[in-house]
Amino acid sequence: MAKIVRLRGFTLITVGVLFLFVGCACANDDPFESGNRNVHGFNEYADENFLRPIARFYEDILPANLRSGVTNFFSNLESINNALNSALQMKMGESVQELTRFCLNTTVGIGGFFDPASRLSINDSDEDFGQTFSVWGANRGPYIVLPFVGPSTIKDALGSSLDFIINPTRLYDPSEHQLFFSATDVVNGRAELLTVENVIFGDKYLFYKNAYLQRREFLELDGEVIDSFDDEF
User: C or N: which end of the chain has fewer Cβ atoms within 10 Å?
Assistant: First the structure.
């Protein structure tokens, strides 16, 4: 559920965690399990008592086609980040494809609310700075769980901070508009996960950890490994 929260305090939280953990290079991929489990418990409490009820209310009052439009809108904005990171990874064809998607969906798709690019088989590439760092040779680093954010690694936490900084919603003024878009993205993303909660089994901490790490490996290797977890995770 790494992609659920992009609030303004995210960068400060990430930087604080990085200063705390960045000097640690351990063979164990989860050397901070005890602390991670505590943060995981806090996140579960916040989700159960705040975010999930809001997401359910959001799902109840908005028709499915409108929620789909909201998802398309934020996905369209991510095309900028996808294009930049594809270029940084020297995947120039993917970068041009993402820019084409953005232009087409922003114009014909009415601000990205509709997705005509996908109907024309112009698909997104789903790239980010965490994947770019991997291409550049950076190690994953220890697994960490961030408050309000969830599963990550040292590398991905730093990458997510850069993803947040270049998010086009930060250009909106006044800042209240930025907060509105961030909150809407969070709630919409959480609502999308409501239908797949029943696939979670066993130790939720280990389930989220394994799902996250396997999904990240799948993305970093451009699909060259099997991802047994649903793409929603």
Answer: N
